[in-house]
Structure formats: C-alpha cells, structure tokens
Automatic annotation (TrEMBL):
The keyword Aminoacyl-tRNA synthetase does not apply. NCBIfam families: small_GTP. One of its GO terms (cellular component) is membrane. InterPro entries: P-loop_NTPase (IPR027417), Small_GTP-bd (IPR005225), Small_GTPase (IPR001806), Small_GTPase_Ras-type (IPR020849). Keywords: GTP-binding, Nucleotide-binding. It comes from Entamoeba dispar (strain ATCC PRA-260 / SAW760). The lineage of its organism: Eukaryota, Amoebozoa, Evosea, Archamoebae, Mastigamoebida. This is Uncharacterized protein. CDD domains: Ras.
Length: 197
C-alpha cells in the first residue's frame, strides 16, 4: 500500500435509540446529541491516520426504519461494521445478534470467512441503569471472534478507539487476503519450476 489517500466504508447498525447517530456525530464533529437535537441516517466523513497512512472513513449512520433494499445496499458496500447496543437495554443487545446474521446473509459469506465487525456497548456512563454486563458483551464478541468495546457518546469515552480498531481490523483482513491471493498465484509457478528440475 502506498501513501495515497484511500477510503473505507464503515456502517453503523443497531436497535433504535442505542446512540448510533450520537457515536457518529461525536466522532466526526465532536457533537453531543441530546433528546432535543436528534439525527437519523446520514453519511459522515473523517480522515484517520494509521501507521503513516491517511485513510478517509465514510461513515454511514443507518436507521431501523430504512427500506430493506437500502439496508442491503449499505451492507453489500460496507468494508466494516460497528454493531452498537446500549448497555441499558438487553433488547438492543439481543438485536445485534440478528444484525450479525443479516450481514453474513446479505454478503453471501460463510461464517469462517471473517468480516470486519466490532461489537460496541454504548452509554457506559449510565452504570446504574446497566442491563447488560461487560462479560456478556465480551463473551458474545469472543464467540464470533470480533473485537469488543464499551463507550459513551456522552463523555466521549472510547469513541475514537472504536474507529481505530475497526479500521485496523479492515486493513489487517485486507492484507491477509492479498497475501493469500499472491500465494495462490505464485504456487503453480513454483510447482512448474520443480518439474523442470
Ligand atoms: N447517557 C447517554 N445518552 C446517550 C448516549 N448516546 C446516546 N444517548 C442518548 O440516547 C438518545 C438516542 O441517541 P441517538 O444517537 O439518536 O440514537 P440512534 O441509535 O441514532 O437512534 P435512531 O436513529 O432513532 O435509531 C439521545 O437522547 C441521546 O442523547 C450515551 O453514551 N450516554
Ligand atoms: Mg439515529
């Protein structure tokens, strides 16, 4: 990879009201949403530096009431996915399990083919309203081999880390695939060389 700027599409998904727009706006514009300034489904851009490389993140904030066709289009085009639940809602935690399945279904991928996904428990500032323990979040993320983080779009805790982790994850999987492709292209040539000897 050279130093030119390239872009990655990151899709934010989760149950209604978990803080998808808050996380996106907090990260891209340093805005803290309140119940009086709501936002729904939008696209935000922000550049991120990873090891000397400048990467443009196109962040799509989805909404539960989107048309299935549009939702599928987001999933098909997404390079990485931020699946958010609220630690104050067990229902929202159960919801991301279905979204995880949906992503694999729409992308026509097998479970042993990794897709960059991070599991995020938002609203960790509301400790006294907690319904999902950190262990539950962590155990689920472990079971599907994905990174996990708790954050707060209100206090900005761990917000930058979400996007750094998912970007690194996308790049790692991209490199791995490219290396595997190079290896499968090289392999027949080696065999040919052996035959000559
Ligand atoms: N205390 C606290 N409140 C939050 C946090 N994140 C979001 N909220 C509040 O939760 C409510 C919903 O946040 P949104 O960002 O609109 O949630 P959303 O997932 O985009 O909701 P929809 O677009 O309706 O699906 C708002 O009142 C936010 O102020 C957080 O980390 N802590
Ligand atoms: Mg929203």
């Amino acid at each position: 990879m050279n130093s030119q700027v390239f872009s990655l599409k990151i899709i934010i998904m989760g149950f209604s009201g978990v803080g998808k727009s808050s996380v996106a706006l907090n990260y891209t514009h340093n805005i803290i949403l309140t119940e009086f300034n709501q936002a729904h489904g939008d696209e935000f851009k922000k550049t991120i530096q990873i090891n000397d490389h400048t990467i443009l993140l196109e962040i799509y904030d989805t909404s539960e009431d989107e048309f299935v066709a549009l939702r599928n289009q987001y999933i098909k085009q997404g390079d990485g996915f931020v699946l958010i639940y609220s630690i104050t809602s067990k229902e929202s935690f159960e919801e991301i399990k279905g979204i995880y399945e949906e992503i694999y279904r729409v992308k026509h991928k097998d479970k042993n083919e990794p897709i960059p996904i991070i599991i995020v428990g938002n609203k960790c500032d509301l400790e006294n309203e907690r319904e999902v323990t950190k262990e539950e979040g962590m155990n689920y993320a472990d079971s599907i081999n994905c990174p996990f983080i708790e954050c707060s779009a209100k206090t900005k805790e761990n917000i930058n880390q979400i996007f750094e982790i998912i970007t690194r994850n996308i790049l790692e999987q991209k490199y791995q695939r490219e290396e595997e492709e190079i290896w499968t292209i090289k392999k027949p040539k080696r065999e040919k060389g052996c035959c000559v000897v």
